[in-house]
Design a protein that fits this description.
By secondary structure, the protein is an alpha/beta fold. Helices cover 40% and strands 23% of the residues. It has 2 domains: 126 residues, 3-Layer(aba) Sandwich (D-Maltodextrin-Binding Protein, domain 2), CATH 3.40.190; 93 residues, Periplasmic binding protein-like II (D-Maltodextrin-Binding Protein, domain 2, 3-Layer(aba) Sandwich), CATH 3.40.190.10. About 4% of the residues have low confidence.
Length: 252
C-alpha cells in the first residue's frame, strides 16, 4: 500500500510543471536592436540570428514564433539573463569574463566578428593605443561587449556616455558631443545605412578585438534538457548549410 502511495505522489509531482523537465519551449527568448543580427520590424523580431533560432524551433517542434521573442534594451536583457534561469539572450559575444563571472551557457557559435572604434571621419582622429582613446569622450551601449572591452583595457566606466540607442550615439558623434563609438563593425554600418546616415561620414579608427564568436546565451542554471537539443538542432542546420545561407542573405 505504501509503495502505491509513494508511486502516486511521484507521478503527481512529475505532472506538476514545477517539477517537469524544462524544454526549449519553456524558455523566454530575448534579443535587442543589433541589426542585421537581430532587430525588430513591424513589432516582431527578425535578423539572421532570429531566423536561425526559428529554424531550430522548427526542428525541435517548439511552438514559438517571432512574436514570442521579446526585443528589449540590451541592459535589461543582460540583467534578466543573470537572474532568471528561464532566459535566453542573443546574440551575445562569448568572452572570458562572461564565462567566468556569469557562467552563461552557450549555443552556437552563430558567427565570428570583432569590435572596433568608430569616429567622425572629418575629425581625422588617430588612435594607436588606449592612451590615445583616453584623450576623447566615448559613447557606448550600456553593458555591450565593446563597452566592457574598453573598460577592461583601461578606460574609466565613469567617463563613458552610456545609452541604449546606437542611433543616439551616431547623432552625438556628428554633433561632437562624443568622439569615439565602440561597437561591432557590421552592426554599425547597417544601423547607419538603415537610419539615413551617410556611412562615409564615419570611419574605423581602431580595432578593439579580433574576431570573437557570437552565440545564443542562457542563464547558468539552464539545464541540459534545454541547451543540448538546441545545440544539436543548430549543428544540424550548420551542416545542412542553412545557417550560412541565412547569414549571407543579410550580408550581401
Amino acid at each position: 500500500m505504501m509503495k502505491k502511495i509513494l508511486f502516486l505522489i511521484v507521478f503527481l509531482l512529475l505532472l506538476n510543471p514545477l517539477y517537469a523537465e524544462m524544454t526549449p519551449g519553456d524558455i523566454s527568448y530575448y534579443t535587442e536592436e543589433y541589426p542585421p543580427y537581430n532587430f525588430s520590424d513591424n513589432d516582431m523580431a527578425t535578423g539572421f540570428a532570429t531566423e536561425i533560432l526559428l529554424k531550430m524551433f522548427e526542428k525541435l517542434n517548439v511552438n514559438k514564433t517571432a512574436k514570442d521573442i521579446r526585443v528589449v534594451p540590451w541592459a535589461r536583457g543582460f540583467n534578466d539573463i543573470q537572474k532568471k534561469k528561464n532566459v535566453c539572450l542573443y546574440t551575445m559575444t562569448r568572452t572570458d569574463e562572461r564565462v567566468k563571472k556569469y557562467g552563461f551557457r552557450w549555443v552556437g557559435p552563430i558567427i565570428n566578428t570583432g569590435s572596433v572604434l568608430f569616429a567622425q571621419k572629418s575629425k581625422n582622429i588617430k588612435i594607436n593605443s588606449m592612451e590615445d582613446v583616453k584623450k576623447y569622450r566615448v559613447c557606448a551601449i550600456r553593458d555591450d561587449v565593446a563597452e566592457q572591452t574598453i573598460v577592461r583595457m583601461g578606460y574609466s566606466i565613469d567617463d563613458v556616455d552610456r545609452t541604449a540607442s546606437p542611433v543616439s550615439i551616431a547623432k552625438k558623434i556628428l554633433k561632437d558631443r562624443c568622439q569615439l563609438w565602440p561597437y561591432g563593425e557590421i552592426a554599425t554600418k547597417w544601423i547607419l545605412k538603415k537610419n539615413g546616415f551617410n556611412v562615409d561620414d564615419f570611419e574605423v579608427v581602431y580595432q578593439l578585438t579580433e574576431k570573437e564568436s557570437m552565440f545564443f546565451a542562457f542563464n547558468q542554471r539552464t539545464p541540459d534538457s534545454v541547451v543540448v537539443p538546441l545545440q544539436k538542432a543548430f549543428d544540424e542546420l550548420k551542416a545542412e548549410g542553412v545557417v550560412d545561407k541565412i547569414i549571407s542573405t543579410y550580408l550581401r
